Amino acid sequence: MIYPLLWMVASSVKPNALIFRDPSLIPTQLDLGNYTEGWNALGHPFTHYLMNSLVIVAGAVLGNLVSCSMAAYAFARLNFRGRKLWFAIMLMSIMLPIHVVIVPQYILFSSLDWINTYLPLVVPKLLATDAFFIFLMVQFFRGIPRDLTEAAHIDGAGHGRIFLQIMLPLSTPALATTAIFTFIWTWNDFFSQLIFLTDPEMYTVPVALRTFVDSTSDSSWGSLMAMSVVSLVPIFLLFLFGQRYLVRGIATTGLK
User: Fold this and answer.
1) Mean pLDDT of the chain, nearest integer
2) How far apart are CA 21 and CA 43, in angstroms?
3) Which of 58, 91, 124, 162 to pair with 118, CA 20 to 30 A apart?
4) Nearest-5° Cα angle at 227, 224 to 232
């Protein structure tokens, strides 16, 4: 499973002519120029595309943490008419592939004049559209003893105070899991970003990497591999430092 990753790292320091001719993981010739060439090969330094991705990722992570946690608290702790029905509809939305909703989304965002902006990639996250994370946090909230919230009600605390001062501090593993998965999925999202971002100035890392491959002329495979390695560094660091929260969040979600 790890061989393709190691092959990509090895290929990032090979000359273009040897990338597909020599499949070994130990390069016979080193070409570190792939990194400098790839960094400046496009219209902007690769830092520009990294920053574009970070802007979208930051908005998506913040939006999911706020909106999905609020929706999860409502499903887990509030009694309102049709709660089970809306919860079932929310779960059913997980089964909808992105290709089914991308056309109506594009029509809607085009009518709002949002195409070629970051709004189509960030605003939906503020509206709790990721049902997976809502379900994840609902299960976690249900595992928190009701005695805590009932005691807070007796002391005069409202739902807002209970949510902010009791539920969220106890839900750090679930929130960290949501943040990590949102970061990874948004950082790696190629399809949506390709659809909504057409100006090279707005390109993110996945779309920028695609420009290294040209079907009509020579492709810069060495630069592509080098920048692919660079694009994996943020994900690797995030997983490295957030691994314990991720494991705790997955291990404790759904337990009563």
Assistant:
1) 88
2) 30
3) 91
4) 120
Q: In this structure, what token pair is assigned to residue 171? A: 């839900």
Residues 191, 193, 198: CA angle, nearest 5 degrees: 115
Instruction: Tell me the angle at which helices 46-77 and 83-92 cross, rounded to the nearest 10 degrees.
Output: 150
Contact criterion met (CB below 8 Å) for 183 and 57: yes
Query: What's the pLDDT tens digit per position in 84-103?
Result: 999 999 999 988 888 889 99
User: Cα Rg for the chain, rounded, in angstroms?
Assistant: 22
Global confidence as pTM: 0.87
CA dihedral 148, 150, 155, 161 (to 10 degrees): 70
